[in-house]
Each structure stands twice: as structure tokens, then as C-alpha cells.
Amino acid sequence: MRSLKRIGISLVLALTMVLQLGVIYGQALPSEVSGKNYKVIPVLFKGVAQETIVSDYLEWSNDKKGYAVLDVKGYAYQVGSNIKIGITIGYQTPNGYTNPPDWLDRIEEISIPSNKTFEEVIKDYYIDFKDIKIVDNGNKLWFYLKGKNGGTFDRQSAQNIKLDPTASVKEPVWPNPGSIQVTNTALPVSVGGIRQEGLWQVELKVEGKNKIMTEPTDVVLVLDRSGSMANEVGDYLCNNEEHIHTRKCYSNRQLLICGKTEHRHGNSCKRLTRVEIAKQATNNFVEQLLLENEKEHNSIKVGIVAFATNVEESRCTSLTDDKTTLLKGVATALDNPAGGTNMVQGINKAKLYLDAANSKNGIIVLISDGEPTYYHTTSGNGVLGGGSYIDTATKTKTIEAAQTAKNAGYEIYSIGAGESISTVGQQVLKICSTNGINDNGEYYYLSKDTTNALINIMENVVRSIQNAARGAKVVIPIGEKFKLWTEQENQFKYEIIPSMGDTALTDSEYDCVISQGKIEREVADGKEKLTWEIGNIGEGTPAILRYYIGMTAEAQKQISYPISDETVLSYSNIYGKPAKKVGKPGGKGDFDIPEVSMDSANIRLIYYLVNDNGKPINEEGQEVERPDLAYNLKNDYYIPEGTSSKDLDFGVYTIKYDISYEKDNNKYIFKEGIVPINITRVELNALNAQPVVYLPYEKVKLQVNWTQLGNESGAFVTRNFICPEQLSNISFTVGFIEAGNITHSNLTLVIDSDYQGGNTFKDKMRFKVGDTALVNVKEVSTLKEENGYNYRSSVTATEDELKIIINNLKVKTDQVYEVNIFFKCYLKDSYTYNQYKNDMNHLSAIHQIGLTIQDIENGINEDKKPINLRYVDIPKIN
Ligand SMILES: [Zn+2]
Ligand SMILES: [Zn+2]
């Protein structure tokens, strides 16, 4: 009775599923593999086992962006004594699905050693699907894959692909391209080792992983090396540190505690030249643009053109991605500046570089400290123009040269180096930039004569070219028990220090430092609010804000208060869609809002996920750089046993943590030996009042072990098998055992209709591409009339193989589960129902199919086991 009821329910579900299937499409066995010794091998996408369906958001231009869904299958097959690796990629074209799907072969073959078999060699082989790009040829895609033991596939799709722009996309998880991470900390301020009571320095840091640049991009730096670039007008190189005492230099009892001497730089102090500033900023630009870790994906090249009265070929560097060559090129370009300003020739030379490269994106970054004074004659060798001033012809020719480059499709960023540039000089530079006179700060910049100012601008340009997010902004409502600690009551002075690293704010005369963008304080109804317009978020240059807050007199002792109210970072993500990260107190949001107290402390406990090697990992199992970037299992304040408050007195605490921890039906255990055990002994004092303790946890390992349900001649038996074209049912049990090194949660069940050699039914049964199946899993010990879990799997099928994927199978280790699979199979063309019925009734005929349980992610790959099918007589079908 039980079985019948179950089938009835499943039929209803199966019908619902058929209506919803739409997207799922299958692949027949490719002709390349057919008839050969072959094995289906796993495909990983971005390091995660996807098992056939791969999807990614791709973006190039408005009409060329959207969600691509690919059906990817990997094959290893034997050709003589060699193994070839190939994949099929099925996808939806604007007119339907590809049939047959694209086939890609790896170029190199693997030879089978004489003492090994095909199966042994290929046992652990998988394909790593690294990247998909849109190709400038309709909506074709470019696939880039790698084999486990090297060897790449690198080819274009045969047909245009349909990209769905409306599909919703999951925000990228660190460290994937486009992921964003926010950290927010508050440290008690101490001067000379003495805590300044009630005063904290807050740091808000936004980091990002750059989007992969899928189009070749060339950037030519056009650098002014005219005589005026040698002027000593930049940062002071004085031996004395500039310091004017501020209120922070004095203790509460008005003692001078900064330990510094006042000094204000003046005419007698040495300064940097413009060209020295330009060198530093340009070197930094090259470093940031060619981040080493992105070279595999990115195709950015940089060239250098230096101009004075003329462009000298020997001071230029043609397009390259070699950093060493470029850094040398910057030095050569800016060495010993002399002569006039022939911007025309500089722009023309850059255009020649870009024309020759003919890449998708061409960018010119023009830096000059003055108005153009020469232009190059198109015929002859001479130069024309005023030489030391701008005349009408030079102005016109310069703007023309820039316009010609812009007409050719190149973007121009122009940077005025030094605010002393004449109005007409500034005007020319602005007109030369991409948006021309209408630019609102995206393509045209005017820099102060300081290293920080020029580096900031050039980093902005880098972040315009490549970034993790655009237009980021964070709004910080200051907590009600706090006030911003500012030098002057009615002023809020900020300084931009790009790439500030750990530079302290303590000695600064500024109330706040930021690494990029601009910041504003607003006061409304007595409440303060900071609005930081960050701009673009770029990898390698984290956006950092540091400011002071002081606790107000209303704050009570022994109670900690959140430093700000809910804080929201908004931005446009790599898909061009609005996204945000929300900070909430108690670690309950995307990032933390610290809670601090005048005279007590608290301890934050963060349980984070690690892999077998103890390395922090994200929720997808990818390694990340630090524990705070790892998947966060638990984020809470430490509350000592027998108490109920997170606010603790200063003193020494030994933290008790869970040996094992359960979350979302998964079990995790504390990973020994990763962190020194004494991290759990914490001393809280005035200067260590909000420590965070990171505790590593590893997901409990499970092993799958499946056994029969019913037995006939040593093989598994179906409960019910009604074939063809009716719903059939395979039933078996599975147990999950905690084990040392095998883990699981995503199971793949594969039914092979073509299982046994010599079997009467071999090659006579098939599955239908596009069909679906249903799996019911329930605990054996609670087998009542409950239905257990029903899994509508993402089924893909070839004619001979039905594959069912169960993601996040929720199981307990002390239980045995009954698994029922419901599916349909069909007779192959030449085989009739009557033949089938006769064959089934023939006693010596055993119809067997093979069942395999795989967990590719964790290496479980149970041997294929036979299942005997029992014929059940039903009314005639064909
Ligand atoms: Zn001082
Ligand atoms: Zn000085």
C-alpha cells in the first residue's frame, strides 16, 4: 500500500515538473565518443563542481549582457594507446537549443603507460571551467577551460548564444570577481601609551575583487617631460616633520604628550619636483593596473609616450604587459625634463600605438603641467608654435589631435599636474578629455602638486578602467551616545591619503582621512551623519575611512553602545545592478557595527569555516586570505557561563567554545592545531577592550554507504518497474557515516540503461532527453505515512544515462534512508513492446540497469551496481 501511495504523489509532482522544466536540455552521447572506451569526467566551474549546468552572468555592452546557461559535459575517451579529453557545451541559441552541442577537444593527448589501464589513468581527472567571455562576433562565447593535469581548451562557440538579461544573479562571494568585503573596527585611542578615555578611532574598510576584463585593453600614458616639470614645487622633503600642536597633543590635564616639536615648512625646506611626483604616481599606476594575480584573465597592456618639444622615440615604450619594462620606461620618459610642450605629437604617437594594436579598448592617459606650446607640422621635421606660450594655432591643433583620437574610439583621461596651470591650459586639457568641456570629474582632473594628490587621481583612473564595483557610497549615522571628535566644532576637515595602509590618523590635524573619494558631515536634529562618496572600488587599493568618535556624557558606565546606527554601503555591482551591504550591531549584518564602552569590554567570537588543511574557506569551499573573509558560522559576543551580559570587566578571561556546532542541518567540529590554543585566554584592558577571537571549524565528514532493499540473485531489485513509458521506481537504502576524509552533501545518482555486456536488454532501452525524475528520501526508522524529502533534481539525460543531482541532501549520520527514484524509460526504435514483454518473461533474461552514486566534490564515486528490473504486466502501450 505504501508504495502505491508514494507513486501516486510522485505522478502529480512529475506532472508539475514537466510544466516547469523549460530550461533543462540534455545531450545525446557525442559522436566523438560513441563506440569508444570512454568515461564521463567531472566539470568544475570557478572551482565548484557544477555537474553539467554551468551558468554565469556575462557583460559587455547593453545588448550583450545577461545570464548564460550552459550544459557542459566532460569526456575522456580512448584512441589507441592515448586518451583524449573532450567536452560538449550545449546552450540556448536565439532560435532554440544547439543540436548537436559544440564539441571541444583538448589539443594534447594523454598516453596510457603500459602498466596502467584507461580507467586507472583517468580516475581523478576533471576539467576546470575557468572562464567564459562574450566574443565580438554576434553573441558568440569564448570558452576557456583547463584539464586537471594541464592542457587547455580555448575556443569559440559555433553559434550565437541567448543571454537572459532579466535573470537574477547571486552576488559574488569572496574571493570571486566582483565580491565586496567591508570591515568596521573601533580602537581605543591612546597617546604615548595612555588611553584617551571615551575616545575611539574608527576604521571602515571596503575591499573588492576586480571584475575580469574580458576584452583586450591598451592604455598609453602620455607624459609631459617639458622643462617646467623640473620645478621644485611638490611635497616637502624637509628633515623636520611638519607638526603644529593640536588639542590631541595634550592630555586631559593639558600636558603636552605628543613628544613633537612644532615646525611649519617654508621656503628654506627642500621640495620634490613635479617630475618626481609624476614618477611615483605613474609607477603606482602601472603596478595597480597590472596586478599580478589577474594576468591569467586580463589582457591589459600599457605603453608610454614622453613629449617635450618633440617626442623622442628612445623615451617611449611600446605596449607591453611586462611591469619591469614599464617601470624602466617611466624612469626613461621622465628623466632630465627639458624643452617645450608638444602635446599634439604626444597624442598622435599614442594614437599610432593604439591603432597598431587594434584592441577592443584603447585608452590615453595624458599628464601635463602646462599649456601646449608647440605643435608638430604634418610635413617636414620642424615644430611650430610659441615655444613658451600657447598661441591660437597650437591650441586648435592640440584639440584637433585629441578629437581625432576620440573619433577613432579611444578614451582620453587628462590630468593637469599642478594647480598653477593657466586657465587656458586647464581648458585645453579638459576639452581634450573624453567628455570634453562637459566632464564632471570622470575624465578630467586637476591635481595639486603633491604625491598623494596625483596618486589619488591616477588610482581613480585605474579604478575607472577596472574595478569590483562602481559608484560606491556609504552613509554612517553616528551612534546616539557618540559625537564625531573634531578639531573645530563647526568644521569637518578631511584629507585624502591614497594607499594609506596602516598610517595612523593620530597626529593629523584633520578630523578624518579617506583613501579615495570625498566625505561630508551633516547634522540634523542634533544627530551627526557621515556620507562618504567612495567612487569605484578597486582591487589592491582598499577604500579606507578613519575618523574619531567620542562618547557623550549621557553614556552610562559598564554598558557598551553601538558606534553607529545601521550603516549602508550601496554600489553598482559587476553586473551593473544596484547592490548593498548593510552593517548591523552584533555581527548580524553583512558587516559589523562595533559596540564600545567607557570602562568595560566585550569579546567577539567568530566561528569560521576551514578546509582539511586548516585554510579559511568561503561557503563554496574556495580558500580565502583571512579568517574574516571565510564563511562565518557564528558571530556573537562572548557571555561567560552563569552571566547574561556581554559587557565584561577588565581582567583575564578563558573562553569556552563549542567543540562541535550545528547550523542549517550541518555539523561542524573545532579544528585543532590551526590557531594557538592560548588565543582563548584573553586579557581585557583599556587598550584591548573589543578583541575578536576567530575560531576555526571544519565541516563534519560524511561517508555514503548504500545497500539493497530486496535482493534477487545478488542484485538489487526494483520495487516496481513498469516499462516502457510509465513511471518506474528504483528503491534502495543509504546510510551516512562520519568518516575521516570523505564529505558529502551533493549527491549525483546515475542510472545507466546500457549496463551489462551480454545482457538481453543492452542497447534496447533508452531515456528521453529532457525528461525529468523525482527522488524521495526518507528515514527508515520513521517510515510511516510521511513523505520524507522530495527532490526535484536538475536532471540531464542522454539516451543511455539518466543523471539526478540532489543538492544539499539533509541527512543525519545515525540514520538509514530509503531512497526511491521515479523515472521513465523507453524502448529503442526497432524494439517493440511485444518483443520486450516476451524477453522479460523468458526466465534466463535478466534486465539490469546500473546505479552509481557519486559525490564529485568530495570524491565519493561508488562503483556502479546492478539493479534487476522486475516486469509488471500492464495494459498495452504500443
Ligand atoms: Zn603636537
Ligand atoms: Zn620643513
Can you put this structure into words, describing what you see?
- The protein is mainly beta and 878 residues long.
- It folds into five domains: 2-21 and 702-868, Immunoglobulin-like, CATH 2.60.40; 38-156, no CATH class; 172-211 and 467-597, Immunoglobulin-like; 217-235 and 271-465, 3-Layer(aba) Sandwich (Rossmann fold), CATH 3.40.50; 600-700, no CATH class.
- The protein contains nine helices and 58 strands.
- The strands form 13 sheets. Strands 45, 46, 48, 52, 53, 56, 57 and 58 form an eight-stranded mixed beta sheet that branches. Strands 1, 4, 5, 6, 7, 8 and 9 form a seven-stranded antiparallel beta sheet that branches.
- The chain is flat.
- 40% of the residues are buried.
- The model is unreliable at 1-27, 710-720 and 739-744 (pLDDT under 50).
- Bound molecules: zinc ion (2 copies).
- One zinc ion binds at residues 236, 238, 240, 263, 265, 269.
